[in-house]
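quick one, 129 residues, struct below
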Amino acid sequence: MSFAQSLTMAQSAPQGVAPRASATGGKNVNARAWAAAQNFEASFLGSMFENMFTDIDGEGPFGGGQATGIWRSFLTQEYAKVFAKVGGIGLADPVYRALIAHQEASASTAREPNVASPHPETPAVPRHD
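---
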């Protein structure tokens, strides 16, 4: 299957694939975290696609020149966005889980009192008697 055929197939697939149930632990999906995970995957894919196309020279009446490089960068960015939006290579799922885990850890740390110091106004300093 050619790259163009893969892109056509990806564009016709359902948009905005949500994370698997295992990624959310049965909880509602955090839309901002999921969008950030998809954007991260799109950036990664964009870098990979740019590397794939670096040695390809333009062909036909629009081939070659500085404009080809600029056009190609826009094209690879769009390829990456579309691929990430329809499921990509599966990178968004673990990134989403890591973001949620980090948010939950930050939230639980913010709720816990400082256990190192028995008195919040007195910092815990080790004694050297």
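The mean pLDDT is 75.
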